[in-house]
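Lecture 7 notes: from sequence to structure.

We start with a single chain of 432 residues. Read the sequence below before looking at the structure.
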Amino acid sequence: MSLLVIGISHKSAPVAVRERVNFAPEQMEEALADALQGAQLDEVAILSTCNRTEIFAIATDDESSDQRLVQWLGHYHHMSYDELRECVYAYRDHHALRHMMQVASGLDSMILGEPQILGQLKSAFAVAAHSGGVGSELGRIFPYVFNIAKRVRTDTAIGENPVSVAYAAVNLTQRIFADLSQTRALLIGAGETIELVARHLTEKGVRDIVVANRTLGRARELADQFRAEAVLLAEVPEQLVKADIVISSTASQLPILGKGAVEHALKLRKHKPILMLDIAVPRDIEEQVAELDDIYLYTVDDLKEIVDENRKTREHEARKADQIIAHSVDEYYQHLRGLNAVSTVKALRAKAENLRDAEVEKAMRALARGDTPEIVLTGLARNLTNKLLHSPSSQMRRASAMGRNEIITWSRELFELDGAVESEHSAADDSE
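Now the structure, written as tokens:
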């Protein structure tokens, strides 16, 4: 049996392709059952996010299993094999396990080291387990992958420093305000960046958020996601009076917030400071605003310096994470090989115990007949030794006759015969 991973991600395909192979939550249970049968799999789990769709499977060792899985994916989403072949990646066994660990640790994410993917992977595993797609193999692999991802987070700083402008902006607010739950944030704009900012602020504890936009409909649409208030851009000067944090990102070609409006707001606030983050290009806030004593203004360039430095730090930590992952993959397969030996050891022990029981029973009958204990014990030891060594001796003679010398070498190591020979030689030398 082999571990297989096939997938499409932001690295291998544009969003137009990724959205075609996306699995909606409500169809996941049906898709898992269909994959088991359609791709002839033993076990399967599916991860589907905006940036990647990946299928984790246990299948027979034949070379066509990954091809069957790709064909199934295309058939399920009404895409041809040729359409998928150009953008699908496939991994098997060691490489598959390594990829799973990299994904879980955020090393394969669009934003290096982002933590959300681990939770998404855990959810995918839980859904697959509930749907009957997980057996003993995936049931052992996924928890191990989760533990390694946790170790990467613990032993490296891969996720500590923000590497997106939106997150860097929010991270900066944490340095300024000890308790973000007591602050009011005014977000100017309603695009993807501001939406990301709003999400990060909410996660950090900000509960009082106002979204200002040129169109009230879009402002309300975004505000509803975060239980925020929606206003028009014309109301920004009024909102400034109550805002502790101002983050702006619009597509305006001219500044929308000038020094006069900010100065007026500061007077009404009795010069209570405001942190302003202008992450728009061109800038939304006049640069003269930075001249005001109670304003702390940062531009996108200031944040990019933080992001660039943090990205370098994460890349350095990613190399540490790769070392942890490489060692963990080797460790897992060593453990797996050890498990493979368990059944053989059990069979060997059972055979030896059966031989022992038979000889003991024979010895007991001899004692009952009146044979002397010395003769019985000697016969027991001799018969047991002969029977235990009969099969290995015959196989070694046969292997030697066939020129399979590696079996002889392994037998000497298995039974520790080289050490025994050396001990015999040493004893002989001592007697001389």
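The chain is about 60% helix and 15% strand. Keep this in mind for problem set 3.
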